[in-house]
UniProtKB/TrEMBL annotation, chains A, B:
Keywords, comma-separated and alphabetical: Amino-acid biosynthesis, Aminotransferase, Cytoplasm, Pyridoxal phosphate, Pyridoxine biosynthesis, Serine biosynthesis, Transferase
Function: Catalyzes the reversible conversion of 3-phosphohydroxypyruvate to phosphoserine and of 3-hydroxy-2-oxo-4-phosphonooxybutanoate to phosphohydroxythreonine.
Gene: serC
Protein name from the UniProt record: Phosphoserine aminotransferase
Enzyme Commission number: 2.6.1.52
Residues with the N6-(pyridoxal phosphate)lysine modification: K191
Species annotation: Olivibacter ginsenosidimutans
Stored NCBIfam families: PRK05355.1, serC_1
Cofactor note: Binds 1 pyridoxal phosphate per subunit.
Catalysed reactions listed for this entry: O-phospho-L-serine + 2-oxoglutarate = 3-phosphooxypyruvate + L-glutamate; 4-(phosphooxy)-L-threonine + 2-oxoglutarate = (R)-3-hydroxy-2-oxo-4-phosphooxybutanoate + L-glutamate
InterPro entries: Aminotrans_V_dom, Aminotrans_V_PyrdxlP_BS, Pser_aminoTfrase, PyrdxlP-dep_Trfase, PyrdxlP-dep_Trfase_major, PyrdxlP-dep_Trfase_small
Assembly and interaction partners: Homodimer.
Recorded family membership: Belongs to the class-V pyridoxal-phosphate-dependent aminotransferase family. SerC subfamily.
Length: 355, 355
């Protein structure tokens, strides 16, 4: 048995895989594979409508916000957000809390003035900057709620005099949020929403159409809103698998229940990292992510041996990102407490042998 | 049994569905679903390398051309092509042969001057314009090789004094082409290459980097070339299913064999349309597409009854696009001659009953 701690694309529930596999052979009772149905068919319209409705329900998305399923990944949103929200002579404010946050503001610089309100770069992004000031004259404030690479997470939405744009790629659907705190939320699906190939955007309608830019149709959120994510051929299968995953989340009790489990999973692992004399966390304690747990060894020379043990035990994706080193356990929604316990056991055994 | 004549996403071989379904449960011997593996894993690197190699082999792509697997569909290329190839003060030339061709040049107009060299719009795009002149001072000449909606196809690459950019979304991999005739080829996968969610781009490297534009990284072909289509998370599964489909195509004899079959399939259906007193084609005979066969009834009042019969027989996707009316039989690579014969039989029976 594998324990998939990969950072994304990542583990999804086994039940989802089963149904996803079946739909490739025959989708519902269409007599067709999900891969060969028209995106304009009634069968697919029902899929996209239910997917949207489930996102709306699970995240309590209020009226006045549209929900879109787009292509290009979160990286594409780094450019598409300023296209849609940054006036040609305007300014945007960004928080620099990690690699993705930094890429986001660098792309925005191609569209206008960017003010970086704070950065933890000089500390290798081990913490999330706090007590920064958001300029009231910027068009929007952008931050990354979970820094996938560095294992830090911002649980409290900053107070902001301007609309907030948030990259929630790696913690969306893992905990409760208040959508009305945001002007725009985006997330590559390939962590907690579904497989790679679709990107979720939740946008407040009345922010759009104010930049004075002649936006290419495919990058204009308004075109996708009008067309209900069917402006052009959508990533049919990635949306369908997301639907299966959202159904799974709803059936198990929704965000309230998954957040409860995620808290227990993260606490179990962080407790062991603290307790275990061989390991230590890399992120500031108050900013520790519930999704990506980054840790190293007090004695780096032992890291290779632990990775070998991890592989023997069927742990996948535990190697840390090269920017941090050591280990990263990504413990997304579908990762079970069983896998967490297996990792804790391995850490304890390893500590005994190497005491 | 269904006969899937849908225009795209469309039929793929049954063998492909079978293997594609299995990989959702377990991919090769990884112990993981293809949906949960990292795009940076060795297992997926092997997938993308083989997919690229097969495109290169099947289409005889010469050295000096890169092959990319991107997101956003062909519609996204309508904007990304001029971003990469149209200098800020430059001009591009476009042929207007259908709905998609027209959308392509309208997006290019957002990036510079567009000269439409010829248009068949006034004739509802029933033919492909010929004998137009391509201006030597434009950066590139863009055309659509197969007009999916109107059922016309350009089999001969125009002679051009400037690089040619071609939207081959609906006829790529259906017949032999000479890649060196082109500067750039793009195609949404969801006809002959694979499922929706991935877009193929074949680009001549030395055309890039000449616009003076500060292109967002995600839209810069050079970034994707450098990263071998792994600049950001790619649409893993759509690429994998494309690989399965390309393997199928190679195993059955490659482009030479599929082109031979496609000629027979198209001829069989067009012959019946001509012969049958109830039906007539809508496209100019010399420009008839081998991929999308558009036809109507001499007596439009009978069309509904024929559609009903078609549905009873398990024909899917036969209704014509609203811009043309009547019927459109999309007869892509994976559609068998058996399905063509079933359609011809139905047309003959219908004619006998309604003589
Ligand atoms: C927080 C965050 N933002 C953006 C990205 C980039 O996403 P994509 O690969 O979909 O472009 C990632 C990828 O892991 C991420 O974790
Ligand atoms: C020739 C052609 N170009 C472009 C498109 C648009 O493709 P997409 O939906 O992938 O953007 C289509 C869609 O059918 C097409 O047939
Ligand atoms: Mg990061
Ligand atoms: Mg410790
Ligand atoms: Mg057309
Ligand atoms: Mg006839």
């Amino acid at each position: 048995m594998k324990h998939n701690f990969g950072a994304g694309p990542c583990i999804l529930p086994q039940e989802v895989f089963k149904e996803a596999s079946q739909a490739i052979i025959e989708f519902n009772d269409t007599g067709l594979s999900i891969l060969e149905i028209s995106h304009r068919s009634k069968a697919f319209e029902a899929v996209i409508e239910e997917t949207e409705a489930l996102v709306r329900e699970l995240l309590s998305v209020p009226a006045g916000y549209s929900i879109l399923f787009l292509q290009g990944g979160a990286s594409q949103q780094f450019a598409v957000v300023p296209m849609n929200l940054l006036p040609q002579t305007g300014k945007a404010a960004y928080l620099d809390s990690g690699t993705w946050a930094s890429k986001a503001y660098k792309e925005a610089q191609k569209f206008g003035i960017v003010q970086v309100v704070a950065s933890s770069k000089e500390a290798n992004y081990t913490y999330v900057p706090k007590n920064f000031e958001i300029p009231a004259d910027a068009a929007y404030f952008h931050y990354t709620s979970n820094n996938t690479i560095y294992g830090t997470e911002l649980f409290e939405t900053p107070k902001s005099p301007i609309p907030i744009v948030c990259d929630m790629s790696s913690d969306i659907l893992s905990r409760e949020i208040t959508v009305s705190d945001y002007g725009l939320i985006y997330a590559g699906a390939q962590k907690n929403m579904g497989p790679a190939g679709v990107t979720l955007v939740i946008v407040k309608d009345d922010l759009l159409g104010k930049t004075g830019r002649d936006i290419p149709a495919i990058f204009d959120y308004r075109k996708h809103i009008e067309a209900k994510s069917l402006y052009n051929t959508p990533p049919v299968y990635a949306i369908y698998v997301s639907l299966l995953n959202l159904r799974w989340l709803k059936a198990k009790g929704g965000i309230v229940e998954i957040e409860r489990e995620n808290i227990i999973k993260a606490r179990t692992l962080y407790d062991e990292i603290e307790r275990n004399p061989l390991f230590k966390g890399t992120a500031a304690v108050e900013d520790r992510s519930r999704m990506n747990v980054t840790f190293v060894m007090e004695n780096p020379e032992l890291e290779k041996a632990f990775l070998t043990l991890a592989e023997e035990r069927g742990f996948v994706g535990l190697k840390g990102h090269r920017s941090v080193g050591g280990f990263r356990a990504s413990i997304y929604n579908a990762l079970t407490i069983t896998s967490i316990n297996a990792l804790v056991d391995a850490m304890q055994e390893f500590a005994e042998k190497n005491a």
